[in-house]
Amino acid sequence: MIKELENILPTITDEKQKASLQKAITIGVPSMKQEEWKYTYYNKILQQGFTTTNLEGFKKLQGLKIEKEFIDANSISTNRIVFVNGIFHNELSTLINHPKINFWDSNNVTESNTKDFLIELNNALTTDGVFLEIGDNVVVDELIEIFYINQNCNQIINLKNNIKIGKNTQVKFAEYYINYDHSPAYNNIVTSIDVAESANVEFYKVQDGGNVLNITDNTFVQQAAKSICNVTTFSLTGGITRNVLQFDVNGERAESHMNGLYLLQNEEHVDNRTLVNHNVANCESFELYKGILGGKSTGVFNGKIVVAQAAQKTNAFQSNRNILLSNDANIYTKPQLEIFADDVKCSHGATTSQIEDSELFYLQARGIGKEVARGLLVFAFGEEIVEKIKNEALKDKLEKRIAELLKIEI
Amino acid sequence: MLKVNNLHASIDNKEILKGFTLEINAGEIHAIMGPNGTGKSTLGNIIAGKEGYTITQGTVEFEGVNIFDLEPEDRARLGVFLAFQYPVEIPGVSNANFLKAAVNEIRKSKGEDPMPPNDFLKLMREKMALVEMNKDFISRSVNQGFSGGEKKRNEIFQMAMLNPKLAILDETDSGLDIDALRIVANGVNKLRTKDNAFLVITHYQRLLDYIIPDFVHVMYDGRIVKTGDKDLALELEEKGYDWVKELEIV
């Protein structure tokens, strides 16, 4: 991997990208020796044979045909932004036409100064992404859908989204991964969401691309005063999935929500890391991640709340609850609190349990077979997250999909 | 319909049932009374198929089938119903989805198609009226936040929806006020036919003012020690259970 990056380095012309690539090379690929990668073996993704190339090499991959009907069948909105193998696909996309909603058709490269291999790699080799700015006082009624379609692509796809939401504006996003031909694929995505004063943003991440789709996702949310932002992550199928979600709460009376549901039944590996930085006073954050782990799946949850000294009167709540369905499934969970202010209300907790025999028997005693009974109980466990979705069509879509995965009728 | 013969069962090496024998025919209502800890609920649980009991001796046949060979769901599909003494709360599963799954799983086991949604809703409304349930009940989670009376009414409602051949009511009357008791009893009486049967487990005679049993059995120390008609229940009410304990079983 590093050797390949060194080979590409001379072909990168942009100085900022070059710097990022150099940094990625210096940092090196993540290793399980690092605390934040303790349970996730990153090399297992690379071992599936992904390579890297520069933008020119990437563009040569394009030109594969995907019918519009395919997107229609997978979409629940008329606002669609579609990427195929990391490049924006104009014919499949339908963008809202409004003077206050601007999609920049420009390169999104910025100077990046992190110590994170994946973020630097992404910045160095970004192919495309959602570059969107919505002005003040706009209510976008319909869901904005973002599709990442992978089609016979053995390249690491580096998409970078940069979304700015204006004051008082309300908008909802949903992003989906589609692995069109079920060959191994890997998306390394970085998303930045800037939420201005009193804005309200919902962002739903639906990770259901089949068992050979790998994802590393870094999402950063910056919130101004009185804003509300909710990021909910659904991990349903996949190979190795790593989600890093960070909220920086920089304005008073802001409200942050982080929810997640991972429903893993085979050999999926899902690693969720969240961080909320409460930097100012009088804010609230709520976090609930629920996991259902069957088969030989692995779940990792690491949630951290940091309350700065200035962030008095912070209310921060975090919970991670898991159900293990099989002896071969694993969950590693670590909630963390770092509090430097003295007048705050914070709580955190993690539980891991199994399906209650008494509940199972109650359903069986009504004629419901054991497998269906188990499916209903698991569905119910996950429903607490699904029902938080504030878009009916998406909620229905996910409920149907989860029922399908659990082989039950609802 | 149900034949329990010389049933011995234990839990954690403690023998609870010690030679319990009972036969119930279609059209009959049997009541089992007795002090706490004599194995009344154990009997109901074993017939319904709850795990954790060890059967050391005896048989239970339902319509000629040895039920120990069957999973709980298969017993329910044959027509056995247990109204739980302590109904379980299931957050996140609505009453409607729960019963739809139950009704359709039972139909599937008989090779029938799922009930059309409109018919199902109609059936639900009809049976809800029987136990005087509010409309919002359909979308509420199973038993979650229900009062004691509501939970027991829900058991009777489920019984009405599934229309079993044999219904075992395990202390369905305990904790009920007089109105709820009337609703529960009324539900049972309306569902009674010549083809089904009821086994009513209770501490108190008062339920039997509303549900008139054909037989009353007194259970003590894991077996039936006396059988009579409804007047036996009155006698128990008057004299308490102490005299039962002094009976010598030979």
Question: How many H/I helices of chain B?
Answer: 9
How many beta-strand segments of chain B? 12
Which series of helices and strands of chain B comes N to C?
EEEHEEHEEHHEHEHEHEEHH
User: What gyration radius of chain B follows from the Cα positions, in whole Å?
Assistant: 18 Å
Oligomer state equals heterodimer
Structural class of chain B comes to alpha/beta
The helicity of chain A comes to 10-25%
What is the CATH topology assignment of chain B? Answer: Rossmann fold
Percent in strands of chain B: 25-35%
Instruction: Name the largest protein-protein interface in this structure.
Output: A-B, 26 and 33 residues
Question: Can you offer a commentary on this structure?
Answer:
The complex is a heterodimer of chains A (410) and B (250). Chain A is of the alpha/beta class. Chain A folds into two domains: 355 residues, no CATH class; 54 residues, no CATH class. Chain A has nine helices and 19 strands. In chain A, a hairpin with a 2-residue loop joins β1 and β2. In chain A, α7 packs across α8. The radius of gyration of chain A is 21 Å and the shape is globular. The mean pLDDT of chain A is 94. Chain B has 250 residues and is α/β, with parallel strands linked by helices. Chain B is built from nine helices and twelve strands. In chain B, the strands form three sheets. Chain B has a six-stranded mixed beta sheet, with helices on both faces. Chain B has a four-stranded antiparallel beta sheet with strand order 2-1-4-5, with helices on one face. In chain B, α5 packs parallel to α6. The model of chain B has no long low-confidence stretch (mean pLDDT 92). At the A-B interface, α7 and α8 of A face α2, β7 and α3 of B.
